[in-house]
Every structure is written in structure tokens, then in C-alpha cells.
Amino acid sequence: MAPVGGTAVQDHVALAEIELCGELIIAASAADEERLSLESIDEVLRVAEERDACAD
């Protein structure tokens, strides 16, 4: 239940995780195969982009 004063606390990490989960759900529903491959999951989550950014 939200506080009575109308103050909303935003947890940016939680919001980002929810967004990524949503992207995975969309990708899984559009996939031809029964399960997403690890490569497909990495692509949806942009894992390679993160690795490249950390390497710089």
C-alpha cells in the first residue's frame, strides 16, 4: 500500500530489472523455439554491449 502522503520512492535498479524482464518475456513470446538460447538471452539483455563498455 502506498504511503498516505503521496510520496513515491523510485527504486531505479528495480525498475531496470522489471524492464529487462519485460524484454525477455517479449523475446520469448516471439521466439520460434520453445526456449530462448543463451545467446538470444545475452542479445536481449545486451550483455556483449556491457562487456565492451567495461573493457574500454
Describe this protein's structure:
With 56 residues, the chain is mostly helical. The chain has 3 helices and no strands. It has helices spanning 12-30, 38-45, 47-55. The model has no long low-confidence stretch (mean pLDDT 83).
Mind summarizing the main beta sheet?
A: none
Question: Secondary-structure element order, as H and E?
Answer: HHH
Strand content: under 5%
- Low-pLDDT residue intervals, each spanning 5 or more residues: none
Q: What's the total number of strands?
A: 0
Helix content: 55-70%
Structural class: mainly alpha
- Whole-number radius of gyration? 16 Å
Mean pLDDT: 83
Number of helical runs?
Answer: 3
Q: Categorize the overall geometry.
A: flat
Terminal-residue CA separation: 43 Å
Short summary:
This protein has 56 residues and is mainly α.
